[in-house]
Amino acid sequence: MGNVIQADLSLKKDEKGLNSSQENIKRSIVKTISWRAVGTIATVTISYIITGTMALAFSIGGIELVSKMVLYFFHERAWNNIKWGK
């Protein structure tokens, strides 16, 4: 019985015809932004501790913010297409 239920759940699709385990692109974008905010605050703090200069710390944080946000977005989208572990 459990196998039948599991098979039925894995075949269900949402209203857009996508597998329900696939993440919406808007959700990926919001996750990207929230994670980068946390990461950038950490980077600016560490940069300030090391350099002692707020301007340099924010410069490092700004570069890191944009570059890692783009990398994270594509990383999430790529992993969304990998079936392993779902």
TrEMBL record:
Lineage: Bacteria, Pseudomonadati, Bacteroidota, Flavobacteriia, Flavobacteriales
Residues of the DUF2061 domain: 29-80
InterPro entries in the record: DUF2061_membrane
Protein name as annotated: DUF2061 domain-containing protein
Organism of this sequence: Winogradskyella echinorum
